[in-house]
Every structure is written in structure tokens, then in C-alpha cells.
């Protein structure tokens, strides 16, 4: 995000407009149907029938990639329109052929757009500055933003566009029923009884690859260690209301929602 | 001959010049290259010279009589060479072997002849595919060649069947199966029966009307066609409401078996389309998700058995059928064995289609059991809708197109099974020619406490009972090869090639290949007196053999 965009975003926020709309890198004018409710509904139907099979009902990816993150990764409406029209040659991603009119393709994208960013109505403005402070104290030791912080947890530089607000809340409050792949808790017990705790980067029948709590990467052959156990408890601590009040959570989320892609200028 | 190459060529040309007539005669008498019907019929033999048809033999056993590699020495296998495709996409091919040369099809309809001694390419064929509009649902793959005489046969992603010259890779003929622009593709390995090449088409997700075809091996002329969906006036036509039969899918994309005793072809058929939306095609939807048994000369239907009437979970029955004669309750029976994507394992009488065994081999929640008439007893609540319903197995199924194997000595049936469930959704789809036409989707159930996993399972085909299993952390897509020395070769999903003891499932050897064996199994053959194991994984083929006996003692 350039300084100019950043100050514009702050200005718009001050005017009471949703930051999530204002800070999108691409012009909203690209897709005539963005925000059009009827069009979005049509788009949803088209998506479910034509795309969900590969990309998942929630567009988070099955045989094709996660589409909820394409804008976050820097794609634009116009660029995506081109992708849908042409397909991705040499892959399974089909082209939408000429028998489908342009406006249906735009409607599809208008629908996908609603999955990509947190819905503006859900966003209650918090104090992002306080949120950032909370983040630095509680989270930065495990998460990286713009090249700084720990690596036990996933990089959060794009988390503001990559995940919807309810998903973030569930993750922070410890209510996710799933581990992220690459971050499953694991304990390795070596032959001499030492234990190594960390997150599982990969594994197969014969080996396991671990980042331990000191961020040391190491692979272990199962035949050379006493035991490898996956924990039930996420490697991310639970931040319940006693640790993180509703207000602080709200501030934290406001901060997280400003994280929209790696930005080396932010220190 | 270890003479200087240039000299030897000059010498040979000089030698041959006056003898052109004699050379022609030699070719006609059957130069070593010509593959005969008898050799295909013979299947895998002790000399290990040949692997000439998809399943090793027509019965699809994938059972090798070679004896050098054993449970005792398998862990000493050494890599001999690796071949790389230099093409995007992965191998799903069964390599054919003939006279120390390998014949391999790869992704995107590239194919090779490869020297089995060195892994070096002899020729390469590449089909010019249309830049867009290909509809292969699930990868630009190919499952292998068939061979007869001096011709190799290969299906293409744009729904053609090609004959290639075995010596050069040049096209001999090119037959169009159907128009790829309206959803047809072909990935199946053909088989040759007598003078015909048998193929099928893919497109069950694109509103095709599936068929099995036979082409004259010599000319590429179509000999017969069997539509997997009966047309107006034919029996079974009324199992499709309205016009749904016209776009009811039912592709045939996995190679079947052939029984020379009765001249019958056994083919599994694909899912009805649209895959998930029940109301789009009321009725049983014959012959989707069925075993169809055809006269190999005429393509006439002899009998059929429908595994999943009115399927709404994409349970293609395009698994590999295996034929054998086995004792059941003290009586020898001629059977066809079939581990189905729908979660049930079946043993059928292969002459009548009567059920002998039908039993789940994975967790199966859509049907309680198969009744005496062979009909699944449905468990209510398993029709997908907009809200979604959860069913096991998931759409990829209890198993799928990767090959099972059968050991005729121990009479064990080996299957690479998956334990997975999914939530299925359905919507009314609109048919647009050439577009995906599935009417829904699934979400895999994959939570902390409910993770899909895989297992190699040994089943007793006389009872359907499990004799042993080898559990793998995630579901694998590898086929299975087994040998008379009690070895079973397969792969896990993480890229390991694995050898098990086929008597008890004990792990004997593994090697990380860097990519999984996908929809294919290793093959084995003899080369200069040493048994070879050829492992296709990702974009590579790697040949393995036991350490060579020191040369010093060998006669030169």
C-alpha cells in the first residue's frame, strides 16, 4: 500500500466509510455488477454449477485453487475476467466459451468478490492502533507481518483479505475445529527421551518434518525416534474473553483488517 | 557387437545392399517386433519378455510369475536409471514391454519408446492438441498403449484413437471417436482382442452419451459401437426420464477385462450426469455405474449388472474388473471381481451376473447391504440437495480407477482402499454443450477427528472378508502389482513406492520417489537375465533391479 493510498484510507475511514472498500488496490469500476444484489445471486448460481466442483462450494479450493484469495494476491477484476474467458491453458481450468455472455462472467466475479473480503456490514470500527499494540504483545512472537515477527504460525501480512471476520474470531477464540496444514501440533520423543514440541511441516509413513518452538527446522525418521504424536490442542493459544476482552478483540480485528498484502514500507 | 559404430553401419549397409529381397522376407516371417494375438493371450510368462496388455493378462491380474525379487532381497533393490518426461502432468500409464523396449504414454498425449537398458529415449510422439476446449475432467492423462503386430494404439484427449508405428512412433492411422468440443475425451488404455481395438470415452461431467467402440486394428475403421445409454426403443431406455438420456454421461474411461472362453468383454461404466442432481434424471439410468458384458465380435450386450442404480454421488463404476476361477463354498466358480467406488466389493458369476458376494470394504453409509436380487438397500437421507448431506464414501470413492491385483495361487484380491466421507450438494444445472454439467459438488469431511486415510487391503473374494490391511496416513491413488514370490508393490500418497509381503501386509521396502504413483502400478519384466521393477511416479519412470552379479565370472 502506498503512503497516498494509506492516508486516503484513513481519511475515508474517518468519514465513516468502510476501509475494506476503500483500500482495494483495483478500481471498483472494473466490474459493473460489484455490489449488485440480484447479479450476485445469479453469480452464485453460476458459480455453484460451473465452478464449485473444482473450487469448492465456499470457493476455498478443492481441485482448483482457493478463489477467496485471488484479489488479495493482487489480481484485478479485469485480469480475472480474462482468466475466466481464456481458462488457464494446459491446466484443468476451463475457458468460459463465447456462448456465455460477458455479463454472466461479470456476475460470477461479483459473487466471488463477496467471498473474498469481509462483508462491510459485519465490520464494527475498532481502534486499529490499540489493536496493533495488542498484536505486538500477544501475537507477534508467533506470526510474521511484513517480514517481522515469529514463524511458528502462518504469516498474517494478507490476513485482512484472506479470511472473513467470523473465521478470524473463531481462530483467536480457539473455536476452530481444524488445524491449518503445515501447523499441526506435534511432539517428537527421541530415543534418549528428549521431547521436541512444534508444528508439523510435513510427514509421510517414514518421516516427519518439524519446526520446533525455537523455530528450528528438522526432519526425523520415525525408525530413529521413540515416538511421534500429534496433539489435540492447536499450537496457537486460546485467547478467551478473560485474556482478551471483547473490546480488545474488536481493536485487534480492526488492525488485522488493515493487513492486505506484504508491504515492506510498513515497519 | 562392440565394434566402432560408424564402421559397423557402413559394414552393415554394404552387407545388405545385395540382399534387400532377403531382408523383406525376414520381416514378413515375423521379425522379433511383431506382436501376436497368442502372446497377448498368454499374458505374463516366466521368461518375462513381455507386458503386452493393460492388466498383464486379459483377466487383469497384475500378477507376475517372475521370481528373482523376493521378500528376502527386495530391500536391496537399486535404481538403474530414471527417465523424465519433460512435460507437465503426471504418468497414469501402464508401461508395455517388448523385447527390451518400453512403450509408454504420458500426459498431454506425449508417448515414448524407451530403451529398457539405459532409460534413453528411442522415439517420442507428441499430439498437437487443441489449445482450448479440451474437457478431460480430471487431468490431461493417458492410461497406456495397447499393441498388435507392429502397431501401438493410444486414445487422445481430443477423443481420437491413434495407431502408431512401434518402430518409429509415426502415425499409421487416426480415427475420430467423437467431437471433443461437445465434451468427449479419451484417456483409457485400449485393449486388443483378435483384430479389434477396444476403447471407451470420458465425459461423464460434460453431458456426453457414453459408448464403447471397437476399431479394426489394421485400418482404424469402426467395427461396432455399444452406447452405454440405450436409445429410444431399446431395453433400458425408459430408465431415463424425458430427454435426460441424451446427455446422461456414462463414460467408459478405465480398461475392462476379456474372457476368451466366452468371447466376452467386461467393462465398468461411469456415472450418470448430471452427477449429483437427482431430479434431472429420474429412474435407474441404465447402464450407468454398471458392469456391461459384451460380445467382443459384435458389441452386443450379453448381460449387465448395475452397482449403483440412480447414482447421485458420482460413483463411477470405472474400476478394473478382474476375472478368475475360484472355489466358493466348495464349488469352483467362474467369477468377475469388482471393488467399487461406491464402497462395496462384489464377486459375480461371470457367465450369469448373479451376485455371489457383495460386502462393503470401506465405511459405506448410503446403502445398508445388497439384497438377493442385487439391489442396494438404500439408507434414507442420502440424496444431495442445496443444504447438503453427508455420505461415505466421498465422491472419489472406496477405491477408483487405480488398479487392484489378484494372486491366483493364494486367491487374494488386493485393493487400494480409501476411507473418506463428504458433504454432497446439488443444484439444478443447465446443460451447455461442452461445459461442465454436474449439478453440484462435494466438500470432503476433513476435521481433526475425522481425517480421510488410505489402506491396502487383501480381501478373500469367496467371502469379501478382509485378510489384512496396511494403513497409510492419507488416501493413495496407486495401483497394485503382485508377484508369485509373495510381493506386492504399490505407492502411498506421499511419494513412497512400497513393497509389502502379500501374505500378511508386512512392510518390506520403501523408497521416496518425490511424487506419488498416480492411477498406475509398477510393472516388472526381465532384462538380460535380471528382473526389473519399473516405477512410474510423477513425471518419471525409474527402473530398479537387484545388485548385479559381479562381471568377472561371467563368460564374455
Name its key features.
A: Cytochrome Bc1 Complex, Chain D, domain 2, Cytochrome Bc1 Complex, Chain D, domain 2, SH3 type barrels, five-stranded antiparallel β-sheet, globular, B: about 550 residues, mainly beta, Methanol Dehydrogenase, Chain A, five-stranded mixed β-sheet, 39 strands, disordered N terminus
Structural write-up:
Chain A is α+β, with helices and mostly antiparallel strands. Chain A has helices at 3-14, 19-22, 37-50, 52-55, 77-86, 102-116, 128-138, 159-162, 165-172, 246-257; strands at 144-145, 148-149, 184-190, 195-203, 207-212, 217-221, 225-230. Chain A has a 5-stranded antiparallel β-sheet, with no helix packed on it. A two-stranded antiparallel sheet of chain A has the order 1-2. Chain B has 556 residues and is mainly beta. Chain B has one domain: Methanol Dehydrogenase, Chain A. In chain B, the strands form 10 sheets. Chain B has a 5-stranded antiparallel β-sheet, with no helix packed on it. The model of chain B is unreliable at 1-30 (pLDDT under 50). The interface between A and B is medium-sized, with 29 and 40 residues.
Short description:
Chain A has 267 residues and is an alpha+beta fold. Chain A has helices spanning 3-14, 19-22, 37-50, 52-55, 77-86, 102-116, 128-138, 159-162, 165-172, 246-257; strands at 144-145, 148-149, 184-190, 195-203, 207-212, 217-221, 225-230.
Which secondary structure elements does this structure contain, and how are they paired or packed?
The complex is a heterodimer of chains A (267) and B (556).
Chain A (H helix, E strand, L loop, with lengths): L2 H12 L4 H4 L14 H14 L1 H4 L21 H10 L15 H15 L11 H11 L5 E2 L2 E2 L9 H4 L2 H8 L11 E7 L4 E9 L3 E6 L4 E5 L3 E6 L15 H12 L10
Antiparallel strand pairs in A: 1-2, 3-4, 3-7, 4-5, 5-6
Chain B lengths: L4 H12 L3 H9 L8 H6 L7 E2 L11 E2 L13 E7 L11 E3 L2 E5 L4 E6 L5 E6 L19 E3 L2 E5 L4 E6 L5 E6 L14 E3 L2 E5 L10 E6 L5 E6 L29 E3 L4 E5 L21 E6 L5 E6 L15 E7 L2 E9 L4 E6 L5 E6 L6 E4 L5 E3 L10 E3 L13 E3 L4 E8 L2 E5 L13 E5 L8 E8 L4 E8 L8 E3 L3 E5 L4 E6 L5 E6 L10 E5 L2 E8 L2 E6 L11
Parallel strand pairs in B: 2-33
Antiparallel strand pairs in B: 1-4, 3-39, 4-5, 5-6, 6-7, 8-9, 9-10, 10-11, 12-13, 13-14, 14-15, 16-17, 17-18, 18-19, 20-21, 21-22, 22-23, 24-25, 26-29, 27-28, 28-31, 29-30, 31-32, 33-34, 34-35, 35-36, 37-38, 38-39
Amino acid at each position: 500500500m502506498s503512503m497516498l493510498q494509506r492516508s486516503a484510507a484513513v481519511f475515508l475511514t474517518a468519514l465513516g466509510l468502510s476501509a475494506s472498500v476503500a483500500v482495494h488496490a483495483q478500481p471498483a469500476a472494473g466490474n459493473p455488477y460489484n455490489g449488485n444484489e440480484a447479479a450476485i445471486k445469479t453469480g452464485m448460481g453460476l458459480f455453484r454449477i460451473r465452478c464449485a466442483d473444482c473450487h469448492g462450494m465456499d470457493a476455498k479450493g478443492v481441485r482448483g485453487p482457493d478463489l477467496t484469495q485471488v484479489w488479495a494476491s493482487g489480481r484485478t477484476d479485469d485480469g480475472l475476467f480474462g482468466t475466466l474467458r481464456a481458462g488457464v491453458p494446459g491446466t484443468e481450468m476451463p475457458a468460459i466459451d463465447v456462448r456465455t455472455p460477458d455479463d454472466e462472467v461479470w456476475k460470477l466475479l461479483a459473487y466471488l468478490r463477496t467471498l473474498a473480503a469481509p462483508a462491510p456490514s459485519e465490520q464494527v470500527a475498532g481502534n486499529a492502533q490499540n489493536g496493533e499494540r495488542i498484536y505486538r504483545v500477544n501475537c507477534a512472537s508467533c506470526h510474521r507481518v511484513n517480514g517481522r515477527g515469529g514463524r511458528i504460525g502462518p504469516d498474517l501480512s494478507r490476513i485482512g483479505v484472506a479470511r472473513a471476520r467470523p473465521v478470524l474470531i473463531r481462530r483467536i477464540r480457539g473455536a476452530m475445529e481444524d488445524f491449518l496444514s503445515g501447523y499441526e501440533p506435534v511432539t517428537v520423543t527421541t530415543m534418549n527421551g528428549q521431547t521436541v514440541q512444534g508444528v508439523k511441516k510435513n510427514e509421510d509413513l517414514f518421516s516427519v518434518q518439524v519446526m520446533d518452538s525455537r523455530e528450528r527446522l528438522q526432519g526425523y525418521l520415525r525408525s530413529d525416534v521413540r515416538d511421534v504424536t500429534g496433539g489435540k490442542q492447536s499450537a496457537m493459544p486460546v485467547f478467551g474473553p478473560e485474556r482478551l476482552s471483547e473490546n480488545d478483540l474488536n481493536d485487534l480485528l480492526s488492525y488485522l483488517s488493515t493487513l492486505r498484502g506484504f508491504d515492506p514500507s510498513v515497519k | 557387437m562392440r565394434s566402432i559404430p560408424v564402421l559397423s553401419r557402413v559394414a552393415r549397409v554394404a552387407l545388405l545392399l545385395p540382399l534387400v529381397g532377403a531382408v523383406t522376407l525376414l520381416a514378413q516371417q515375423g521379425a522379433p517386433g511383431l506382436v501376436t494375438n497368442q502372446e497377448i493371450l498368454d499374458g505374463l510368462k516366466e521368461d518375462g519378455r513381455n507386458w503386452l496388455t493393460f492388466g498383464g493378462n486379459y483377466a487383469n491380474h497384475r500378477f507376475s510369475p517372475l521370481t528373482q525379487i523376493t521378500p528376502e532381497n527386495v530391500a536391496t533393490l537399486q535404481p538403474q536409471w530414471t527417465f523424465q518426461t519433460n512435460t507437465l502432468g503426471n504418468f497414469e500409464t501402464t508401461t508395455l514391454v517388448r523385447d527390451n523396449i518400453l512403450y509408454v504414454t504420458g500426459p498431454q498425449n506425449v508417448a515414448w519408446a524407451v530403451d529398457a537398458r539405459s532409460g534413453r529415449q528411442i522415439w517420442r510422439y507428441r499430439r498437437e492438441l487443441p489449445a482450448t476446449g479440451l474437457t478431460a475432467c480430471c487431468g490431461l492423462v493417458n492410461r497406456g498403449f495397447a499393441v498388435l503386430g507392429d502397431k501401438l494404439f493410444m486414445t487422445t484427449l481430443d477423443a481420437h484413437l491413434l495407431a502408431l508405428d512401434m518402430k518409429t512412433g509415426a502415425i499409421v492411422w487416426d480415427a475420430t471417436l467423437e467431437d471433443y468440443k461437445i465434451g468427449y475425451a479419451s484417456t483409457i488404455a485400449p485393449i486388443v482382442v483378435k483384430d479389434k481395438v477396444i476403447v471407451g470415452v470420458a465425459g461423464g461431467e460434460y453431458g456426453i452419451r457414453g459408448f464403447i467402440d471397437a476399431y479394426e486394428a489394421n485400418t482404424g475403421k469402426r467395427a461396432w459401437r455399444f452406447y452405454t445409454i440405450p436409445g429410444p426403443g431399446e431395453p433400458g431406455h425408459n430408465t431415463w426420464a424425458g430427454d435426460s438420456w441424451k446427455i446422461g454421461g456414462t463414460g467408459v474411461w478405465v480398461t475392462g477385462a476379456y474372457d476368451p472362453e466366452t468371447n466376452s468383454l467386461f467393462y465398468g461404466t461411469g456415472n450418470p450426469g448430471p452427477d449429483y442432481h437427482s431430479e434431472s434424471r429420474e429412474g435407474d439410468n441404465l447402464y450407468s455405474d454398471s458392469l456391461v458384458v459384451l460380445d467382443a465380435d459384435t458389441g452386443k450386450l450379453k448381460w449387465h449388472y448395475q452397482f449403483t442404480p440412480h447414482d447421485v454421488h458420482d460413483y463411477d463404476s470405472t474400476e478394473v474388473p478382474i476375472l478368475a476361477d475360484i472355489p466358493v463354498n466348495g464349488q469352483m466358480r467362474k467369477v468377475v471381481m469388482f471393488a467399487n467406488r461406491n464402497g462395496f466389493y462384489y464377486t459375480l458369476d461371470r457367465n450369469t451376473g448373479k451376485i455371489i458376494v457383495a460386502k462393503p470394504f470401506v465405511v459405506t453409509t448410503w446403502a445398508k447391504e445388497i439384497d438377493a436380487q442385487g439391489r442396494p438397500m438404500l439408507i434414507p437421507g442420502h440424496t444431495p440437495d442445496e443444504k447438503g448431506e453427508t455420505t461415505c464414501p466421498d465422491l472419489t470413492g472406496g477405491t477408483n480407477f487405480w488398479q487392484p491385483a489378484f494372486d491366483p495361487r493364494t486367491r487374494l484380491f488386493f485393493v487400494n482402499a480409501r476411507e473418506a466421507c463428504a458433504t454432497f450438494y446439488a443444484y439444478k444445472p443447465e446443460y451447455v454443450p461442452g461445459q461442465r454439467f454436474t449439478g453440484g459438488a462435494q466438500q470432503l469431511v476433513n476435521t481433526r477427528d475425522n481425517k480421510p486415510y488410505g489402506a491396502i487391503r487383501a480381501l478373500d473374494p469367496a467371502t469379501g472378508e478382509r485378510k489384512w490391511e496396511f494403513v497409510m496416513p492419507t488416501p493413495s491413488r496407486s495401483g497394485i502389482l503382485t508377484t508369485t514370490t509373495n510381493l506386492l508393490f504399490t505407492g502411498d500418497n506421499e511419494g513412497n513406492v512400497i513393497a509389502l509381503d502379500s501374505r500378511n501386509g508386512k512392510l518390506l521396502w520403501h523408497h521416496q520417489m518425490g511424487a506419488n504413483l498416480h492411477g498406475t502400478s509398477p510393472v516388472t519384466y526381465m532384462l538380460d537375465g535380471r528382473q526389473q521393477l519399473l516405477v512410474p511416479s510423477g513425471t518419471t519412470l525409474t527402473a530398479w533391479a537387484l545388485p548385479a552379479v559381479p562381471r568377472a565370472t561371467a563368460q564374455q
